[in-house]
């Protein structure tokens, strides 16, 4: 009995249990991606036009991205307290929206609806903060894979909740809003005491690589299964018992990762684990004592040094550094001390805000993720304008691609930096080119192009949110990572405000008005009678022209984001060479 209690205590304090629980919570943290599914019922119930609906979308994006309060509370409250606050916000915000849409509560003005959507979606920031903080502390040497997987499950949340909604088979579309209000809150409250730092940096095992491989395999199987199920349900008229079976299998795939902490705690013989530093510190060289800083060497180095291979470049830089130290010691030169940290050290938010690299990341993220979010927010109207009856399929599909983009972005960007010592932002540049092509597919409105467009945009958009956090932590440190990351996430609502709230909605309403002015574009006489009765019926636009210009603009913006990312790559080559070049050289040797 004592042996079992010891093993159970080991299980409760196992860092892999925290990771798995964080994955489950993150699978409920993607409720914002369901806005494309719930927006049509809000629009029809409250008689909104596209511009009013876009404002709700911006409020949703603000709630999803403004995480300063969540970050501040997580430093004061225990993580379970922050999770509880997030669950309450989610329940109150979306629960009130459901009451209004179903007529159980009086209709509120648009600004009040925006507040409710903001409060409901802002609960996600608490889920994200608690999951990332606990797992980054428990897995300090595996930030890329951990962040990619956790953000990936957040992107998959829309598809998971949509499948559960399909199983419920409710004829009332507003019930999806009710599920968004209640489901995540229940899951988070059930798991909130598990999410915490458990000294994971002292639980290193040789089997960790195998465990990550197993998690990656489950991720790929889960994404492939969800995609297959959704395509089958879209093409074939599936009976309700089969849908229930599909959903049960989905739950099994979500639960499978719990096998790792169970195996490590109950079936593997306890061993003395290795230990890694909680927050890696930059190596201090002897030259630091002479105040020779990296920027000084950059000022003195010849331009051709940047073109050399990594090993040769390091050798030349070391020689230059040695010469500067010797000259400084002899008084031949006076090395100036630079105020504040330099790239790769710990920055505060104020210090980062005056750095060009930080703003390159922010603007590139604004253009790339902002254009992707515009598609996500308008998926319902985009698919309806192209003649698709089932808008939920595209919301679910883009959730799957978003998931794979985040997992794949974290994995491949980690390969780029660890195996090649090349700047991580190059992966973001590739993702932005992929998105540019995806916008063209959606804008042209070719047969079945919507499927390809959502694939490319989902992958590219998701990759941003695995690459950017890791890049920020590498260039600006981990000490104030929460504040830096929460500021960068403001690029999402900023992009949504401009691209969706102003550009996409204005173009859509303009094209709808053009079609409404011509009698042959009216679908039936009902719209004429509603006009005679003084009912302001929301205008609907049909055809690829509704979002053609918007998609072309988004494509151009993604190309601009690609250029900015490549500028960042060029500026940070030396930084990544110094961060990862030594480990790569030792690995090759």
Could you characterize the architecture of this molecule?
The chain is 73% helix and 0% strand. It has 589 residues and is mainly α. Helix 19 packs antiparallel against helix 20. The longest helix has 29 residues.
Defining key terms:
single chain; membrane; NFD4_C
Brief overview:
The protein is an all-alpha fold.
Report the oligomer.
Answer: single chain
- Tally of helical segments: 25
Average pLDDT for all residues:
80
Task: Estimate what percentage of residues fall within beta strands.
Answer: under 5%
Largest sheet, if any? none
Shape assignment:
globular
Count of individual beta strands = 0
Specify the helix fraction band.
Answer: over 70%
Report, as a whole number of angstroms, the end-to-end distance.
49 Å
Q: Which structural class matches the secondary elements?
A: mainly alpha
Low-confidence stretches: 276-296, 521-535
What is Rg?
26 Å
């Amino acid at each position: 009995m004592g042996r079992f209690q010891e093993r159970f205590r080991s299980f409760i304090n196992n860092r892999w249990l925290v990771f798995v629980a964080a994955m489950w919570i993150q699978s409920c943290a993607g409720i914002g991606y369901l806005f494309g599914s719930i927006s049509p019922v809000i629009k029809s119930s409250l008689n909104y036009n596209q511009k009013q609906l876009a404002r709700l979308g911006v409020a949703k994006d603000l709630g999803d991205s403004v995480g300063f309060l969540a970050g501040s509370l997580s430093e004061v409250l225990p993580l379970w307290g922050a999770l509880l606050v997030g669950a309450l916000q989610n329940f109150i915000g979306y629960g009130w929206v459901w009451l209004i849409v179903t007529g159980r509560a009086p209709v509120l003005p648009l600004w009040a609806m925006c507040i409710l959507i903001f409060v409901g979606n802002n609960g996600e920031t608490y889920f994200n903060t608690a999951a990332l903080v606990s797992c980054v502390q428990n897995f300090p040497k595996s930030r890329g894979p951990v962040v990619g997987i956790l953000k990936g499950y957040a992107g998959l949340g829309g598809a998971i909740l949509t499948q559960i909604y399909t199983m419920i088979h409710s004829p009332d579309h507003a019930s999806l809003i009710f599920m968004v209000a209640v489901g995540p809150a229940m899951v988070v409250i059930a798991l909130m005491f598990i999410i915490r730092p458990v000294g994971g940096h002292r639980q290193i095992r040789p089997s960790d690589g195998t465990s990550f491989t197993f998690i990656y395999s489950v991720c790929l199987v889960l994404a492939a299964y969800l995609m297959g199920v959704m395509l089958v349900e879209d093409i074939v008229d599936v009976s309700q018992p089969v849908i229930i079976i599909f959903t049960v299998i989905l739950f099994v795939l979500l639960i499978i990762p719990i096998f790792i902490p169970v195996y490590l705690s109950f079936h593997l013989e306890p061993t003395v684990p290795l230990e890694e530093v909680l927050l890696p510190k930059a190596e201090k060289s002897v030259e630091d004592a002479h105040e020779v800083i990296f920027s000084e060497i950059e000022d003195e180095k010849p331009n051709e040094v940047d073109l050399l291979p990594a090993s040769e470049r390091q050798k030349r830089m070391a020689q230059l550094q040695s010469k500067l130290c010797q000259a400084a010691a002899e008084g031949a030169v006076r090395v100036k001390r630079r105020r504040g940290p330099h790239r790769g050290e710990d920055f505060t938010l104020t210090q980062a805000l005056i750095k060009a690299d930080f703003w390159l990341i922010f603007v590139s993220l604004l253009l790339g993720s902002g254009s992707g979010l515009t598609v996500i927010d308008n998926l319902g109207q985009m698919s309806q304008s192209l003649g698709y009856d089932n808008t939920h399929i595209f919301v679910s599909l883009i959730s799957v691609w978003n998931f794979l983009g985040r997992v794949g972005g974290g994995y491949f960007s980690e390969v780029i930096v660890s195996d090649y010592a090349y700047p991580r932002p190059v992966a973001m540049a590739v993702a932005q080119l992929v998105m540019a092509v995806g916008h063209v597919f959606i804008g042209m409105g070719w047969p079945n192009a919507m499927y390809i467009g959502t694939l490319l945009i989902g992958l590219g958009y998701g990759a941003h949110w695995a690459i950017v956090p890791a890049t920020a932590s590498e260039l600006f440190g981990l000490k104030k990572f929460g504040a830096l990351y929460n500021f960068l996430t403001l690029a999402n609502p900023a992009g949504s405000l401009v691209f969706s709230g102003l550009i996409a909605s204005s173009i859509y309403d303009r094209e709808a008005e053009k079609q409404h002015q011509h009698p042959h574009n009216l679908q039936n006489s009902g719209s004429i009678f509603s006009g005679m009765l003084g009912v302001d019926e929301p205008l609907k636009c049909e055809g690829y022209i509704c979002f053609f210009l918007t998609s072309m603009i988004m494509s151009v913006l993604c190309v601009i984001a690609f250029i900015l990312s490549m500028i960042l790559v060029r500026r940070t080559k030396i930084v990544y060479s110094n961060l990862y070049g030594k480990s790569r050289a030792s690995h090759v040797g």
